[in-house]
Amino acid sequence: MTYTHHHQVEVAIQRNGRLRRRDFVKTISAGTAAAGALTWTDVMNVQAEELRRRGMACILLWMQGGPSQFETFAPKSGSTGGETKAISTSVSGIQVSENLPRVAEVMDDVCVIRSMTSKEGSHPRATYLLQTGYLPTASVKFPSLGANIAKQIGDPSSDLPSYVRIGNRFRGGADGGLLGVQFDPFVVSNATRPPDNTQVASGKARYLRRLKLLGNLEAGYEKNGGKQEVADHRKLYEKTSRMVLSPQMDAFDLQQESRSMRERYGSSQFASGCLMARRLIESGVTFVEVNQGGWDTHFNNFDQVKQRCEQIDQPFAYLLRDLKKRGMLDKTLVVWMGEFGRTPRINPRSGRDHYPRAFSVAMAGCGVKGGQVIGETDASGASVTEHPVTVSDLFRTICSGLKVDADHENMSSIGRPIKIVENGKVVKKVFA
Description:
The protein is an alpha/beta fold. The chain has two domains: 3-49; 57-193 and 245-430, Alkaline Phosphatase, subunit A. 37% of the residues lie in helices and 14% in strands. It has 13 helices and 16 strands. The strands form five sheets. Strands 6-5-7-1-8-11-4-12 form an eight-stranded mixed beta sheet, with helices on both faces. It has a two-stranded antiparallel ribbon with strand order 2-3. It has a two-stranded antiparallel sheet with strand order 9-10. Strand 2 and strand 3 form a beta hairpin. Helix 1 (3-16) packs across helix 4 (40-54), helix 8 runs antiparallel to helix 9 (227-244) and helix 11 (269-282) packs parallel to helix 12 (301-325). The longest helix is centred in the C-terminal third of the chain and has 25 residues, at 301-325.
């Protein structure tokens, strides 16, 4: 592709934000297209290049188990609310639970959606849905949102992985799926120490010799029907080897931060994960997921949620402050969510059960208009009464914030094109 053609497409993408196949002919002259000087692959490569140059990134704060909306971002008075009180925030008229006093102070940057709704009340299925935008099927392995975002705007030339998951795995979680193992997340089980098995203790030269030996051993298996398995294995090892030998691995080392900075984030595992997430985004990682479990509060809901909030309140709030101070919040989308909410009624064990019909999500950064609440539920919190937001709507909104085309299609192994997001509409009010 010539410089002129490259520039022509680049200008079109900058003007339109994204370019779809059906817009291609409208944007580029018929003569150029007919001459074969510019292919659709060329267009997609230029679009990906342009998106990567923007340096957009996403931090997903994943609350595994389904956090109670009543004790976090959607407090209710009366019997539904139990014993947890609502407190004022930095934005007049918006209240959150008393369990989140630090987050209340940064509400100017936070948009809360109180009208999320779905039909999935099982942990594995709901987690899969909120991670991929799709329900699980036997025929298609859908990629997680993180994998899709990493593929669209991640930098393949970076030594660090484009997609990092901090914290233990969860039931129903998804990986690279049909995109391939190269888009699986790099998992950091404990953010307080460097990732496991990333130290080359034997020295670089010996390590490279061992890799060569591994390649020789794989060759025989490859010739005897193991071509795909060997190809996947090599992709992983090539990516991992480049990473562990890179000086950019310092991004995983929280000891590089001052003690005062670590104290600002807090002392919990989640706090370390949030600090690591900031360091990774700063080093060019595209999508970081930080996990906090323990939200499945079928019994003793109030004490359990209070304890979980004590672990996330300070780091969540300071992450937003830190990103903003460094000029990174405009290009980093921060999303707080779990797989569903909890029941309005308190059960006989002082707990709340699974409730997907109405729950909350919080967002900040990347053009999100903070200091607002979108949607509402009835007095009991049982039903959405204003501006219902589906999972597809949420995913399209996240893609919009990151300037990713939600209609981009990936091809499954059975030849079926799969959009990043099927159906749904962008919740424009998030950015209004």
